[in-house]
Amino acid sequence: MKHVIDIPRTAMEVFNMLPEGTRCEVIDNTLYMSPSPNYDHQDLLGDIFVMLKEATTKNQWGKVFIAPFDVYLSGEADVVQPDLIFVKDQHNSIIQKNGIHGVPDLVIELLSSNKSYDTKKKFDLYQRNLIPEYIIIDPETKEVWQYLLGEDGRYEQIASEKGRLVVSALNAQFSF
């Protein structure tokens, strides 16, 4: 008796075979795997998540998610796990049990060992998928880079300060 083994043909097929919780993403049919983040990354991520979660819950603005939580973009051809994700209440139909299927209102990435991955590869993906707001934070220096989607579909950088998170999607500010 012959056994037929289905061999994955795409990065997304490989992704779908991985155990739950595996730290990986698919961008442009390429599978990217990351090591666990360091202490500074996780400490700041937890602090910012708590601030955003408290503000969004209190004001009933929407839902905040912390990685790992899959975000399916490009008609589900790409899947990423941003460090923080915000979806406004009026867009909550994109939230499903296995992740977000569509464009969240905000993604935040904290830089880790592969800085160009967040500043170039993910930047391009988020811009291409018209995510309205993208914020990058360096956990070591507390530098913040905030980008808002312009009418031309391209990100425009907004002036920002070290240690201060200004979230346009929430019309709120936080210090860290």
UniProtKB/TrEMBL annotation:
InterPro entries given for it? Nuclease_put_TT1808, Restrct_endonuc-II-like, Uma2
- The source's domain of life comes to Bacteria
Q: Where in this chain does the record put each Putative restriction endonuclease domain?
A: 17-162
Q: What is this protein called?
A: Putative restriction endonuclease domain-containing protein
